[in-house]
Design a protein that fits this description.
Layout: H1 2-19, H2 22-26, H3 28-67, H4 71-93
């Protein structure tokens, strides 16, 4: 699933680059299509970035819990881990019950969490 997200990220970067090209600017129909696609992809890419950050922080806190000896520091990491797991679940569920509440409409894949239990 992360491969699909990377493909979406690549398409986002390509569309962004194409939007600034003279060819796209001279063809208003093409420019409008690219602009709409860019807007749709932006929603997914922004959510993905937030989601990836949460997953990274979950991993970091798990690492702290497995290696740290200081009990106070472990307690802080455990508290943050609980909060991050809840945040991951909220992001996964999305506002409308589907993953992130967004699908961008044009065949972009539903984004799922490979780490979700």
């Amino acid at each position: 699933m992360l491969d699909k997200l990377e493909a979406i990220r690549k398409r986002f970067d390509d569309v962004e680059k194409e939007l600034s090209s003279p060819e796209a600017m001279s063809d208003m129909k093409r420019f409008a299509q690219l602009n709409k696609e860019y807007k749709d992809l932006t929603k997914i890419v922004e959510k993905h970035d937030i989601y990836a950050n949460v997953l990274s922080n979950i991993d970091a806190n798990k690492q702290i819990l497995s290696t740290e000896k200081d009990e106070e520091f472990r307690e802080m990491a455990k508290s943050e881990l609980d909060m991050l797991i809840a945040q991951r679940e909220e992001l996964y569920a999305g506002e409308s019950g589907s993953c992130w509440g967004e699908r961008a409409g044009r065949g972009y894949p539903r984004i799922a969490d490979p780490q979700r239990p």
